[in-house]
Amino acid sequence: MSDGCPVTIDWEPIGISVATVNEFEIFRRNTRRHCSDIKLNELARYEILLDAGYNAFDILEGQRLARQLKSERMSSFYTKVILNKSTTGAESRDEYNTASRTIV
């Protein structure tokens, strides 16, 4: 998640489709999408959450919490992994910058 409030999977489905594995594989043939094709932008997340019954305050609070948790993960990663290595400062910064782009 890089923009907006996170959208998570809930235990209560919006809809249900049932298919055998073979039916699913036939349906999915030649329809695989690249990761960038299935990422949701901030507006799409916002609309999904509004449709699910959340209000603007709930969404903004979720977005704030997600940013806080991401920051805590990065701080923990930097402290535990990068600083504990015996590398030069430049190498540590490069590893940290690479990790900050991949850990979400």
Write a brief structural summary:
The chain has 104 residues and is mainly alpha-helical. It has helices spanning 21-28, 35-38, 42-51, 56-82, 89-102.
Name the shape in a single word.
extended
- Which radius of gyration do the C-alpha atoms yield? 19 Å
How much beta, percentage-wise?
A: under 5%
Q: Which class best fits the helix and strand makeup?
A: mainly alpha
Largest sheet: none
Secondary-structure element pattern, one letter each: HHHHH
Fraction of helical residues:
55-70%
- Average pLDDT: 76
How many runs of DSSP E, i.e. beta strands?
A: 0
Tally of domains: 1
Low-confidence region ranges:
none
What is the terminal-to-terminal distance? 6 Å
Instruction: Please work out how many helical segments DSSP would assign.
Output: 5
Describe the 3D structure.
The protein is 61% helix and 0% strand. It is mainly alpha-helical and 104 residues long. The protein has one domain (21-102). Helix 4 (56-82) packs antiparallel against helix 5 (89-102). The longest helix has 27 residues, at 56-82. The model has no long low-confidence stretch (mean pLDDT 76).
Please write out the topology:
Blueprint: H1 21-28, H2 35-38, H3 42-51, H4 56-82, H5 89-102
Helix pairs in contact: 4-5
Pick out its properties:
mainly alpha; extended; 61% helix; 0% strand; 104 residues
